[in-house]
Specification:
This protein is of the alpha+beta class. Helices cover 30% and strands 39% of the residues.
Amino acid sequence: MTDFDPGEDRKRADEARLAQQAGRWRSRSRRVHLYRRLLPILIVVLAGGALTWTVFRTVMSGVEREASQSKEIRLDNPMFHGQDAAGRSFIIGAQGAVRDPATGRFRLNGPVLRLNLGGTKVTEMTADAGIYNEQARSVTIGPNVRISDGGSGFTLTTPEAVVDTASGVVTGDKGVQGRGPLGTISATSYAIYEQGQRVVFRGSGDNKVQGTINPASGE
């Protein structure tokens, strides 16, 4: 009959626990070594992917921009002719123009507008740049707008002018300076009716002028 030895059982149990813990430690150690090898590779892959995406988007943006620009219609010394509702003719010229395919509007470089009052009476407008919206029948020009009336000799300078080609009315609300046979005038806003036959000025602040000038009649 074999004697039961509790100490021996505890020893075997301790050895089993140690062996189990050692196995877990070795397993964790292998995972740590694996992660140490994979982590730099993963970082390189992610960085390369981000760089590739950035380059791809840059290239695609350039392609899209070039495709959009290739659809633009560029004109040298264009000339647009038309009539307002009263049958009075107008001409819109420019040193150059670019038609935006998305909106159909023309970007004008060095625009020149001529509004014909009949005979030799022509109101001429020049500026550095402008936008011609043929569909909306409007032209916005500026900066450095100069408006001259061939019949009266009256000249206006203003930062911006908006021409309604349907009615022939010219307006602006960014200030205006006027000079002519009747003297000089400074106002906040202006409106030119009947293609130069009547000019209405309004002012505020230091420019408190308000009145109407009929250049054609000299009043």
